[in-house]
């Protein structure tokens, strides 16, 4: 039986298959395990991550198609349920949470979590709403009981944008590594490139060899800059028998498929779509590559390291430099430089780092230590199931 105590609510726009949603569900898992009474409040409960909502967490579906239209439902929820703290994630949801608390006139404290480099998000936004986010953050984020950034780079960027004192922006990394990751990594991927090959392995007793697979994962959007990765792979694959697999779905699929055809890579590059368990692919890939133009804290990079897989990343703002200890655990290359990315991939294929070093670093982003830090910052106990 769960202990009675303070109630925490997490507010998300939806359960779509994005990195922010996955990280908050990991946090929800840690919070429930710590004994916190938890509501997961979503604008819409539709999405591939619905099955990942942990048992013991109350799912509240506001039935809103867009995050802005979730405002009336969130106000009603706050008046009815009156959680001790409401933790919002993603910038539009952060603003809606702050507005809802004000309209509801309840004593609930609101904490906001900033998942990406806001200045970059605004600079690349296609809508007016996205471009004005920094101005709205400057006005409303100081009203939060805590402003939480997922990396030091995100915190520094946010501090410049909102003009708050540095102490007001706290850094808590994402809870990337779960207790189930190892078991999920042990599952067999469903892609043909990870099935046993047709030619015998050179060493007796080993599984038949196949061409090494380079893996990437993320939404097919300009932020992830997969065109640079595909061009780097094209240059690299001229002298090597390699494959490139990019997991994810998004609006850039037609453009990426066209680029793959133009480069004559149709047999060597695949876009199989979203996969709920990318860890099975990470564990069997020869190398994982993050080609992003910007990030907050790239969870897929950390997950690949937790699987013991070597990584190469762009030195984008922000997160990779922090995760990779300035390049000690994997090469960092300039954003958009296909030649440098190809060279870094080649070096890492030839001289991969020890898997134990990568796993040890990834453990810093485990659910347990991150959950403990959230409970401390939100004033909800020490993570052992106690109250405030």
Automatic annotation (TrEMBL):
SUPFAM superfamilies: UDP-Glycosyltransferase/glycogen phosphorylase. Transmembrane segments: none annotated. The lineage of its organism: Bacteria, Pseudomonadati, Pseudomonadota, Gammaproteobacteria, Chromatiales. Residues 18-174 form the Glycosyltransferase subfamily 4-like N-terminal domain. This is Glycosyl transferase. PANTHER family: GLYCOSYLTRANSFERASE. It comes from the Bacteria. It comes from Candidatus Thiodictyon syntrophicum. Keywords: Transferase. GO terms for molecular function: glycosyltransferase activity.
């Amino acid at each position: 039986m769960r202990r009675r105590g303070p109630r925490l609510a997490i507010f998300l726009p939806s359960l779509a298959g994005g990195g922010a949603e996955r990280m908050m569900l990991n946090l929800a898992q840690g919070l429930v395990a710590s004994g916190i009474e938890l509501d997961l409040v979503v604008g819409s409960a539709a999405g591939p991550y619905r099955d990942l909502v942990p048992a013991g967490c109350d799912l509240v579906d506001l039935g809103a198609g867009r995050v802005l239209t979730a405002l009336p439902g969130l106000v009603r929820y706050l008046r009815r349920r009156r959680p001790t703290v409401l933790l919002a994630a993603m910038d539009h949801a952060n603003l809606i949470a702050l507005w809802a608390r004000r309209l509801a006139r309840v004593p609930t404290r609101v904490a906001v979590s900033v998942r990406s480099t806001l200045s970059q998000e605004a600079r690349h936004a296609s809508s007016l709403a996205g471009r004005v986010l920094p101005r709205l953050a400057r006005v409303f984020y100081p009203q939060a009981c805590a402003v939480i950034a997922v990396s030091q780079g995100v915190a520094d960027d946010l501090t410049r944008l909102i003009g708050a004192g540095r102490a007001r922006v706290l850094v808590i990394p994402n809870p990337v590594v779960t207790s189930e990751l190892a078991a999920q990594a042990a599952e067999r991927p469903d892609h043909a490139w990870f099935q046993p090959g047709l030619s015998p392995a050179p060493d007796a007793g080993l599984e038949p060899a196949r061409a090494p697979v380079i893996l990437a994962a993320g939404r097919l959007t300009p932020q992830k800059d997969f065109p640079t990765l595909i061009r780097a792979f094209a240059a690299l694959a001229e002298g090597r028998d390699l494959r490139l697999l990019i997991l994810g779905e998004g609006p850039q699929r037609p453009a990426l498929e066209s680029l793959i055809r133009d480069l004559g890579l149709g047999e060597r590059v695949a876009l199989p779509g979203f996969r709920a368990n990318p860890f099975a692919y990470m564990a069997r890939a020869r190398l994982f590559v993050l080609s992003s133009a910007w990030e907050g804290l790239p969870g897929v990079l950390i997950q690949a390291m937790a699987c013991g897989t070597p990584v190469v990343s762009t030195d984008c703002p922000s997160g990779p430099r922090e995760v990779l200890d300035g390049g000690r655990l994997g090469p960092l290359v300039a954003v958009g430089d296909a030649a440098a990315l190809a060279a870094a991939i080649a070096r890492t294929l030839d001289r991969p780092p020890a898997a134990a070093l990568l796993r040890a670093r990834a453990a810093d982003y485990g659910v347990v230590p991150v959950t403990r830090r959230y409970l401390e910052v939100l004033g909800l106990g020490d993570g052992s199931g106690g109250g405030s």
